[in-house]
Amino acid sequence: MFNTFYEREGNQTEQFWTSPFVPGQRLNGKPVYVLTSPRTFSAAEEFSYDIQTHKLGTLVGATTGGGANPGGRFRVHEHFAVFIPTGRALNPVTKTNWEGVGVKPDIATKPGEALRVAHIEALKKIMESVKDDPDRTAALKRALDDAGKRPDDPETDFMRPGAGMRRPPSS
Predict the structure, then answer these.
(1) How far apart are CA 111 and CA 99, in angstroms?
(2) Is residue 97 a contact partner of residue 65, using CB atoms and an 8 Å limit?
(3) What is the pLDDT of residues 125-150, one digit of tens each?
(4) Rg of the chain's alpha carbons, rounded to an integer?
(5) d(CA 154, CA 112)
(6) pTM of the model
(7) Cα–Cα distance between 135 and 143 in angstroms, integer?
(8) CA 122/CA 144 separation, integer angstroms
């Protein structure tokens, strides 16, 4: 079981499972890195939380936004509505969820640094598995050096005011 959702209406609980059969190649044993930021929210947070709690990969970046519980907008006045949670996500591993606190990454870094940091971590992991191959080790060492020199991406550093506000290219 991957997750459970409890809905107040009808006092119902629904469990979500992975499929026992997946067509195509599997990525078993391959390192997985998921990039997170404060803009990671709701379903993307559940994906991140599931990857982390089921030990399927490594989260890199900043703590997510903290929206776990399903709900909806309810009109309280002609010009005013509120979002009210009507249920609760419940992870089978932690017996809780990320509502209001977000998902904390395994490797904390600014969002603008997350891709570079994840790339470096992936290269290090691959290097561990090929240490008996001097040619591959040398190539990976060069890639690791290059990755370390890569600048941060300020456009994805959502902690910086005004970031992520790209203008369309002028014609």
Answers:
(1) 20
(2) no
(3) 999 888 888 899 899 999 988 888 88
(4) 20
(5) 5
(6) 0.81
(7) 13
(8) 9
